[in-house]
User: Fold this.
Amino acid sequence: MKFSFNKYPIDLITCLTLSIILLPIVLLDIQGPIRTILGLPYILFIPGYVLIFALFPTKKTTKGIDKIERIALSFGMSITTSLIGLGLNYTPWGITQNSTMISIFLFIIILGIIGYYRWLKTKTEKRFIIKLNIKLPKGENKTDQALTYILIITIIIALTLLVYVIVTPKTGEKFTEFYILGAEGIADQYPRNLSTGENATVIIGIVNHEYKTINYTTEIWLINQSTTNNETIIHNMWFLDKINIKLKHRDVNIEEKWKPQWEKQYNFSITKKGNFKLAFLLYNKNTEEYNKYQDYQNISEEKIKKAYRSLHLWLNIK
Assistant:
């Protein structure tokens, strides 16, 4: 089978089309393998290719270059387009993802239009065109032909898997950071001994490393329990409060200084006297509604068991 594109520069049109498709994906910050698949040639090949096409719209002649030279120069010239980023540093927009994306896009579109115009002004017989000549070898019998087809399919599958492995992000350990800090923002000076009705403050923090967006629910419970023969008995479990927060995944970067993703200063007061456990139960989903200060001792074990993460403070209320 032979394919020849004489009426239109299909290679240039493909470069422009891929650039137009990638633009909204980046500007809208849409993540996924498509962004990587299109982004790599957008940075490493397409800018240089449209530049070379604009300079050399003719095929191999005294004024043209051959396909190998065209491809090699495309990679080299694409690297030089990084100078666009240096120019952005002296503009009000600065060097950002969107400003870099738009500037390279305009560079590609403008040179693409110039290249297309020059290609149209070139005589038909001298235009650089893409020709594909696909011939399947004919075996002496049907067995050889079948093996040839199997080999081709195997190569296609192998290339597809290779691309998938390259563009698929490597998923590390999935976990959630759940912590409580004292009022000063350090893991110390927690409220311990309080008077009835006295206000106290802690800081609740969550960091999502689950590789997906999660609707977290933090429930705060006041628990009256005792321990006998290493067996814990819950006598009362009063519901105090609930906090809902939706967090996106955050990558773990050990080279950067740790920063909180979400923290909340939580104020509370206890109106009962005695020794209690103030439990903070974290769930990775929305939970049922409960009445404040009502005793839910009958579901206490189930609530604690189903919690995704749990923390607690011991309080002595006088």
